[in-house]
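Duplicate of #3305? Posting structure anyway:
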């Protein structure tokens, strides 16, 4: 096993400008829409990472022609008008929940046997609610081990359409996957959400990307009912992908922790990604925000603990929890019980590692409370979770002797994270 990465505390306030790579979430949604469109689309600003590569490879196994240019930043996607040319495929989706959930729905549009699997952790991540909804829409899909987790077998003969009900409290990716595939069904698709819907900003992102490719989804204001006309082919075109707001959160948090200012280019409050709202959380904690028509700057300030529901921006929970180590008073994060089902248990395992740094942490079913304490050096486990590694590196900006196990796991969404962080703190 490689030696843990030793982080280096900063010696002066930051003054950095960064542009993170393209959004993983937008890249993968645009790839699906472009693949099902009626002609060639050009995606610019795309993310090249493990998660986007397994999506590209999976779509190629479906028979979609995708040309990769400019080291993956530009993708030429030759849409197939909602059809899957391949008559069978065996897809490996790594630990990309987005990929396996979206492509399970897309696989039902084909004709023939398709199988989707991933790493050992993927075999523990829920997918049963998606399979039930697809079955209601006429698909033949099963969990091979009958445990509502991957591997998934799809015996595809096109998606009939109709009405399906699914729970909304585990993952919004189930709903997004259904909506992305729905325009290629044989008849209109109506989706009803049972109970609260988590991560609504990601659903809004799906709606926006679909609209950019010519498909509008009708929904109620409470995000409980969605209607998609079908068959309604996506329209090809040029699509520019924003920088990743979840990745940007680490640089904004660096300014909060180390002081000084960090400007992130390519993102504004009007961006498609809900995670840009992370800067508003930092403002509540005592930071200053500065906006231009193409950037958001965070200026560090005296941090104070807050209580906050992070359901809508749950990918930034780990980032905020590390910022909370340096605040005056406790910080309580609520509304994120669903992140226990991510790459790791992002509540329980996060609490374990924060305690190593000297914090007192109260774990709740739907979140945690971080009580800052005398901080100390520690070697931190990352649980093969890219967001653990990227967040814990921020603690090392102020704490001497922080070491990060398996820093390479950031390749899932941000292969050059540590190089970019070093450039920002110089």
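Output from current build:
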């Amino acid at each position: 096993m490689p030696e843990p990465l030793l982080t280096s505390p900063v010696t002066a306030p930051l003054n950095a400008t960064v542009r993170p790579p393209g959004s993983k979430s937008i890249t993968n949604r645009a790839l699906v829409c472009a693949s099902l469109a009626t002609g060639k689309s050009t995606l610019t600003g795309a993310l090249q990472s493990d998660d986007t590569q397994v999506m590209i490879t999976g779509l190629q196994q479906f028979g979609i022609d995708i040309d990769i240019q400019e080291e993956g930043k530009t993708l030429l996607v030759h849409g197939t008008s909602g059809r899957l040319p391949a008559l069978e495929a065996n897809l490996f989706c790594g630990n990309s929940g987005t990929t396996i959930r979206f492509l399970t729905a897309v696989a039902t549009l084909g004709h023939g046997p398709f199988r989707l699997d991933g790493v050992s952790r993927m075999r523990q991540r829920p997918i049963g609610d998606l399979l039930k909804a697809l079955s209601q829409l006429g698909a033949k899909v099963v969990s091979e081990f009958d445990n509502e987790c991957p591997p998934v077998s799809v015996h595809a003969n096109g998606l009939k359409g109709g009405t399906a009900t699914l729970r909304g409290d585990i993952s919004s990716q189930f709903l997004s996957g259904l909506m992305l595939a729905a325009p290629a069904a044989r008849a209109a698709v109506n989706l009803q959400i049972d109970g609260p819907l988590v991560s609504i900003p990601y659903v809004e992102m799906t709606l926006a990307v679909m609209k950019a490719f010519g498909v509008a989804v009708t929904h109620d204001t409470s995000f409980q009912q969605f209607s998609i006309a079908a068959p309604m082919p996506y329209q090809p075109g040029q699509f520019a992908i924003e920088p990743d707001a979840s990745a940007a959160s680490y640089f904004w948090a660096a300014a909060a922790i180390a002081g000084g200012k960090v400007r992130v280019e390519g993102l504004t409050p009007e961006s498609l990604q809900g995670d840009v709202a992370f800067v508003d959380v930092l403002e509540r904690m005592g930071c200053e925000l500065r906006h231009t028509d193409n950037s958001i700057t965070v200026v560090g300030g005296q941090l104070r603990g807050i209580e906050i529901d992070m359901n809508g921006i749950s990918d930034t929970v780990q980032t905020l929890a590390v910022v909370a180590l340096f605040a005056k008073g406790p910080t309580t994060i609520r509304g994120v019980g669903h992140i226990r089902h991510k790459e790791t248990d992002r509540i329980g395992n996060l609490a374990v590692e924060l305690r190593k740094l000297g914090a007192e942490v109260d774990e709740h079913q739907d979140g945690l409370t971080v009580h800052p304490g005398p901080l100390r050096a520690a070697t931190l486990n990352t649980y093969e979770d890219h967001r653990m590694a990227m967040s814990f590196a921020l603690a090392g900006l102020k704490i001497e002797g922080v070491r990060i196990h398996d820093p390479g796991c950031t390749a899932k969404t941000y292969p050059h994270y540590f190089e970019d962080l070093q450039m920002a703190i110089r």
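Confirmed duplicate; merging threads. The longest helix spans residues 245-258. The radius of gyration is 21 Å.
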